[in-house]
Amino acid sequence: MAIIGIDLGTTNSACGVWQDGKARLIENRHGELLTPSVVGLDGEKNVIVGKTAKHRLLTHPTSTVGVFKRLMGTKHAIELGDRRFSATELSAFVLKSLKDDAETFLSEKVEEAIISVPAYFNDNQRQATKQAGEIAGLKVRRLINEPTAAALAYGLHERKEGTFAVLDMGGGTFDVSVIEYFEGVMEVHASAGDNYLGGEDFLEALVSDFLAKHDLKKEALGKEDLQRVYETLERVKCNINAPWSSRLELTLAGRDIQFEASGEWFKSCVTPLLLRVRNPIEQALRDARIPLAEIEEVLLVGGATRMAVFRNAVGKLFGRIPSSHLDPDLAIAMGATVQAGLKARDETLDDVVLTDVCPYSLGTEVVDPGGSGRAGYFLPIIERNSVVPASRVETLQTVEDNQKQLQVNVYQGEHRLVEKNVFLGSIDVKVPHNKAGEETFDLRFSYDMNGLLEVDVKINSTGNVINHVIEQSPGTLSNEELEKSKARLAALKFHPREKEENIELLSRGEHLYSMYLGHERTMLGELLAHFESVLDGQNGTEITKARQQLKELLDAMDKGPLQ
Ligand code: ADP
Ligand code: MG
């Protein structure tokens, strides 16, 4: 029976199978290799996964979620419509969707998998990943570190030994790992990262600059206009390596806008982000105590490493051209699949887990660093990947005149807004009355090997110290909870594949309908109505025909305003 290899990514997931001596990636129900890690519920409580759900992120924001991988291994409840799920359960939906696609592809049942996880995942997060597999009906034969998977995909295990750097820039994070291959063991020596540096941040930089250049404010634009800006610029981002510039024509807030999206413009927008690539690379090399000159190969993984500006920046830093003959956003799935192939032949490669780091950032709530005075912002104190035990201190101050009390809220997570992170606890401390900003206090976080977080607040004017210990609740499920999750998920419906394709087309059509005007809009409106009535008729051949017709129009329209 086949074992599938899975990359369960923050933004996208993919899977493959070992066939005829090589890794073969599996197309999903839409004929694509990447399945967005996005989950939604529709009006009839059907679970929607992947591309269809991704399209609904903007139109149905309360019943669609993404980036839940960041919450793996916590008990944080994520709301989806009127229901709540853990990150483990949401991941199980994605895994189930991949499993279904693999079963269709292979025409046989798939019950075993190898899943990749970030090297810095702790035991809790690894356990949660395995449990997600189990809920989805997959026995997880083993987990593999993402950088190790990348090395396997690049065939580095066929060499004798060596030291490599793996640079992985996905949608939201940039992870750097220094790994060494020696006598059949792939060891991760260090892993460092920037949790706010990914493809989506590059897109955000383009959007901000584009809007500023045209005197437009995000808040003033309608949801649809804004969506159009994001989609157009995402396309610009993904085509930026082409030697020509894209000429954009957009109507926004009733104004016709023409814009030449040149390579120079792109570069000027993203240069501040590119400058941040250096830090984690240096940190990982420093932590691994390996000089840059000893790195034999630099591997690029993650969709965002496709950008030529990124490659050039990395090339300059390392003084060599990075290896990138594989599809960067598929490399990890390929590697997990190679591991599945080795497993089937009983010759797995061992990889050593990095365990002595703090897997999440731990911090507190502060007011807007931009100066608006609003609360709700996250200030990391112990950053993710710090070697444990770790102890860090930050000096903070009161924000109101005659403030009597401090409420120190403690969170774990990587988002700049605390509401998107996991709340761990709160400490109330009295402070002497004084003008805003006149009372300062030292906030010390100490994190030990056992996951205990100790928080000390010292009021500097009085020398008073308040101490509080927070035990992080492990996010793994007990057997009983696991069974409950399985039953809960089994009670939810998944659309039959065929039906899902129709829903996907309709939602894509509705989305384009909102973007177009005039003749095209009318034509699309008619075709959508026709398609709906054919669907109601439930005649298979008719449906296939109408679907094809609609798909052709949508594909043509999808080419969009870019020439
Ligand atoms: P993750 O590891 O977070 O699941 P991926 O490795 O799939 O994510 O990378 C997703 C990111 O890669 C997205 O931000 C996407 O915009 C970006 N990306 C994909 N293709 C390209 C491209 N051709 N050029 C630039 N960015 C790209
Ligand atoms: Mg990834």
How is this structure best described in words?
- The longest helix is centred in the N-terminal third of the chain and has 20 residues, at 87-106.
- The protein contains 14 helices and 27 strands.
- It is globular, with a radius of gyration of 25 Å.
- It starts with a strand and ends in a 5-residue tail after the last helix.
- It folds into four domains: 3-197 and 277-357, Nucleotidyltransferase, domain 5; 199-273, Actin, Chain A, domain 4 (Alpha-Beta Complex); 362-461, Sandwich (Substrate Binding Domain Of DNAk, Chain A, domain 1); 497-558.
- The mean pLDDT is 90.
- It is an alpha+beta fold and 563 residues long.
- Bound molecules: adenosine-5'-diphosphate and magnesium ion.
Output the CATH homologous superfamily of the largest domain: ATPase, nucleotide binding domain
**Oligomeric state:** single chain
Strand content: 25-35%
Determine the structural class based on helices, strands and strand pairing.
alpha+beta
Spans where pLDDT lies below 50 across 5 or more residues: none
The 3D shape can be described as: globular
Largest sheet geometry: 6 strands, mixed
Q: Can you tell me the CATH class of the largest domain?
A: Alpha Beta
Helix percent band: 25-40%
Query: What ions, cofactors and ligands are bound?
Result: adenosine-5'-diphosphate, magnesium ion
Radius of gyration: 25 Å
The total beta strand count reads: 27
User: Helix count, per DSSP?
Assistant: 14
Total tally of structural domains: 4
Q: What is the CATH fold-level name of the largest domain?
A: Nucleotidyltransferase, domain 5
> What's the end-to-end separation, in Å?
48 Å
In CATH, the architecture of the largest domain is 2-Layer Sandwich
Q: Indicate the mean pLDDT.
A: 90
